[in-house]
Amino acid sequence: MRASPVTATLDLEADGIQHGFLKLPHSHDASAWGAVMIPITVVKRGEGPTALLTGANHGDEYEGPISLFDLAGRLTAAEVTGRVIIVPAMNYPAFRAAKRTSPIDGGNMNRVFPGRPDGGVTEKIADYFQRVLLPMADLVVDIHAGGKTLEFVPFAAAHRLDDTDQQEKAMAAVEAFGAPYSLMLLELDSLGMYDTAAEEMGKIFVSTELGGGGSATALTAGIAKRGVANVLKHAGIFSGAPEHGRSIRLDMPDGDCYVMSETAGLIEYCVELGDTVCAGDVLARIHDVERTGGAPVDYHAKRGGLFIGRHFPGLIALGDPVGVIGVPA
Ligand code: CA
What we know:
This protein is α+β, with helices and mostly antiparallel strands.
């Protein structure tokens, strides 16, 4: 396979702290010989594991960029044993456009892995992570939130894996992150995900969903900042023990955790995020917006548990998620 067109303007193997870019040539109307310049910080000292930290895999999710631009600005090499690679905004064009997907090629970073060196901009970035950065990492933390269309209770998550040892290590890192909830996440659509790419390489992978709605709060940004430091402590890259309160363990045993819309209209939620619900409870009602006089369509929980995720905008389409249920483990 051809070499990646991405080059790092810093030395990924050098000791000390370096701030630079992942530089991807991009010829376009405003700059014939231009480049996408993705900020990156690498900190390395002594012998130890490598952590790869990313935000804005989806460009409208802000807890990752907030915590990682902050960390990159404050970190010193003396605090690190091993290596920390920080890319605060992985899909940088999407981040700058405040969009989930890239404004250049429409690419959804979390659906294009393993990427292609000769594909679109998003695929080229994914390919660089797949073939250069992920192989260097022992531990990968990818900070997501709900973006403009979803909202979640703040959780860190691992996935059920064929390798139970890898799964247990991932869940231990998730619990070290110390979000209010620690979830064994069942994905709707895992094909092409960065998570899957990292897990297939045997990496310890921590994902999160910290709030949503296309903005961060003081609470969710704080959870991200503390969580990243906690995971680095857990890995021995930072000294000291993780600091956090109790994290509630949740599971998603099967697809009944998802309630999806088969109606378009105006959504009226009947429960709040974090509420405990029983099977059969009405989560939301969708009102017809085209005419008056009809009854709303009720959407019921298919199982009991905690209401952990919902659609964010006031209007909903067919196929959108109405709600997500997590089951206390
Ligand atoms: Ca996301």
